[in-house]
Amino acid sequence: MIRQLRYLSPPGLRMQLTLWYTIVSVLLMLVFCLAFYSTLQQILFNSFDSTLQQRAQHVAEGVGVDNGKLYVDDMSQEIPELDAPAALIDPYNSSDENDNNPSGPPYYSQSSRHDLVLVRVLDRQGHEIYSSGSSGDLLLPEDSVLQPLAGKPWRATMNDVNDQSIRIYSTMLVDGDTVIGVVQVGQSLETLNRSLDRIVLVLFLLMLLSLAMCSLGSYWLSGRAFRSIQRLARTAREINANDLNQRVLVPAAKDEVRDLSIIFNQMIARLERAFVQQRRLVADASHELRTPVAVIRNVTEVALSQLSSPDEYKHVLTEVNEESEHLGHLINDMLILARADEGQIHLDCEPVRLDLLTRDVVDSLEMLAQERQMSLYTRTLMPATVLGDAARLIQVIMSLVDNALNYSNPGGKISLSVEVRDTYAYLHVSDTGIGIEAKDIEHIFERFYRADPARSKSVSGTGLGLSIVEWVVHAHKGAIEVRSIPGRGSTFTIILPCICA
Which residues cross the membrane (predicted)? Predict the structure, then answer.
């Protein structure tokens, strides 16, 4: 049975909320009912004891002393509930006739009324002076007499021979400042107990009714609350990759459902941008891959159909090799970015002197700059140690320098500098090239983005260099900034956290 219950699916969220609300309501109602019942019971018992105390005072007022003997007046008018068959007992006459007096206290029968008052009057020696008809059914402890004689009232709940609960109040009789006897007053608790039982029944019925109303109300309220979520789910089911322009309706109420709707719309907007970028990436990658393949195919077809001399074949093979190399760089860059997106590339970080890396890159590319009739040099190179992957940082510097060479005219100048401010190292790569328009700066790190196709169509490259640069810098917990003036040049600034040398 338990194994079968494990495979049962849990109820829906609406039903779970209803069940939890009902359980909490049950606990709260139980606590309230218990507190209410206990308080009411205590109040009723205190009132019951106060009534017994008042009746004991009435009895005490009807007791007098005559020649050292106690006598009791008729109390039936002052206490109508008093049991009628009561007798005055003469404890001072010890004759057998008195002992066999048939007029003594009768035995309390099961059929007697439950609201009768039991009364006993005793002198200081514990001799019974007066007793109501039902007092003989009770066997009271000695404390019920000794404690009042000592000046302290005594109260307790006793059971008679019929197993009926009787509340007893026992207090002292005083004449001036002298204790002359004891008055005991009692009454059945059955009427009070029946009233408490009826109260318990009423509380139970009210609790069942309240729980039913709470359950139905919580189920209705949860359904109303989930109505917006159901609309959100319905919209989510209708959205697919070809229809990402839909948005869920944002409710006017400023609640959690409104926040969820806004977040959902923001997520759909991000997905839409991601799909647009993915489609554009596929289109751009297809275009970039198609160009070298088309060139290779054209030159090989021409060579197969027309050319025959070894020099011409050598020229064709050279072009094929160059385009193959360009194709290989493009594929390699795409593979790097794909692996970076999946988090499969791990950096081998160690302390690296950024200023020394910059010097090495300038030395290795200085000849290439001279061939293009440009000057490549360093300015300030402050010692700066960063925690990073030396190979990736060299790739960043070389990509920025290559980008500056591609977009600078003959006679241009390219300078590099490294400085340290606070706890960060700043690598600046500046050129006097054609610059970048303000509208294009925020897009230059996108893959295959070309700022001006008319000006950059003669520029070689994969179109992924700056995308790789941005990824490497961010992987080193750094930042990259671009400042450019069209027609006057650009400055790329790499900011990396320094470490103590």
Answer: 20-40, 199-221
- Residues 396-406: b if buried by 16+ CB within 10 A, e if exposed: bbbbbbebbbb
Task: Encode 372-438 in three state secondary structure.
Answer: CCCEEEEEEECCCEEEECHHHHHHHHHHHHHHHHHCCCCCCEEEEEEEEECCEEEEEEEECCCCCCH
Burial class (CB in 10 A: 0-12, 13-18, 19+), 258: middle
Distance, in Å, from the CA atom of 179 to the CA atom of 459, rounded to the nearest integer, reads 124
pLDDT of residue 313: 75
The C-alpha atoms of residue 79 and residue 59 are separated, in whole angstroms, by 9
Cβ atoms of 79 and 55 within 8 Å: the answer is yes
User: Which pLDDT score, from 0 to 100, does residue 387 have?
Assistant: 92
Q: Are strands 87-88 and 128-131 parallel, antiparallel or unpaired?
A: antiparallel
Q: What are phi and psi of 331, to 5 degrees?
A: -65, -40
Per-residue model confidence (pLDDT) at position 98: 39
Handedness of CA 55, 61, 66, 68 (dihedral sign): positive
At 247-304, the pLDDT tens digits run: 777 777 677 777 878 888 888 888 877 777 777 767 766 766 777 787 788 878 777 7
Structure tokens at 405: 């060479």
Give the residue carrying structure tokens 């596929």: 282
Q: Does 113 score more than 70 pLDDT?
A: no
Over the Cα atoms of the chain, what is R_g?
52
Task: Provide the pLDDT for residue 4.
Answer: 53
Interatomic CA distance for residues 491 and 438, integer angstroms: 13
What angle (nearest 5°) sits at the alpha carbon of residue 459, between those of residues 456 and 463? Answer: 85
What's the token pair of residue 496? 């990396």
In angstroms, rounded to a whole number, what is the distance separating the alpha carbons of residues 443 and 438?
10
What's the Cα-to-Cα distance from 259 to each of 228, 268, 316, 346, 375, rounded to whole Å? 12, 14, 63, 37, 56
Q: SS3 for 240?
A: strand
Rounded mean pLDDT, 138-155: 87
Torsional sign, CA 207, 208, 212, 218: positive
458 compared with 307, residue with greater pLDDT:
307
